Amino acid sequence: MNNKANEPRLSHVDDRNQPTMVDVSDKAVTQRTAHARARVKLPAAVQAVIDGDEIQGPKGPVFQTAIIAGTQAAKRTHELIPFCHPLGIEGCRIEITVDEAGQAIIDCRVKVTHKTGVEMEALTGATVAALTIYDMCKALSHDIVIAEIALVTKTGGKSDYQAGAQ
Fold it and tell me: For residue 129, what are the contacts with CB-CB under 8 A and spacing of at least 6?
């Protein structure tokens, strides 16, 4: 067991080394934001059916459906991740673009005014959007790869974060 005050420790483990939800009752209410990004490598078979900024598949418009699914997931993160607090998300915006390498780039930005951050909501939104693209395009190819899911930035609370800035 780690009892040294200055050593880093997991936030969801108590002094008895038992899993627990973080107590946020003493934290300040601030505006908190998070931006997460997922990259989905699309094989040639999928790239061939991209029309502008959308893929029209038999199940409907792929990117539009992924945006809706990702938004739903961000709002329900506390139901999926055991120790996440339920939050009244004030904003969730998901954008999907295709880069020159044929990757779908999913950017999920979430905002809340609360005592806890929305990193997990942004990561969950980006992840479920990526999974939705996979699901809707797998009939064309199973060579789709969800290559990366990462937190890009977070603001509010004790400290801000920007990927690569540490």
Answer: 38, 66, 67, 69, 70, 73, 94, 96, 106, 108
Structure tokens at 74: 């961000």
* Residue 146 β-bridge partners: 40
Write out residues in the chain with pLDDT < 50, as ranges: 1-2
Catalytic residue chosen out of the listed positions 14, 15, 107, 135: 135
Domains within the chain, CATH numbers bracketed = 31-161 (3.30.70.640)
Pairwise CA distance, residues 136 & 62, whole Å = 6
Q: Token pair for residue 83? A: 């120790």
60-107 tens-digit pLDDT: 899 999 999 999 999 999 999 988 999 999 999 999 999 999 999 999
Terminal Cα-to-Cα distance of the chain (whole angstroms)? 28
- Would residue 99 show up in a list of annotated catalytic residues for this protein? no
**pTM of the entire predicted model:** 0.87
Radius of gyration for the chain, computed over Cα atoms and rounded to the nearest angstrom = 18
Q: In what order do the strands lie in the sheet with 103-114?
A: 91-98, 103-114, 30-41, 145-155, 161-162
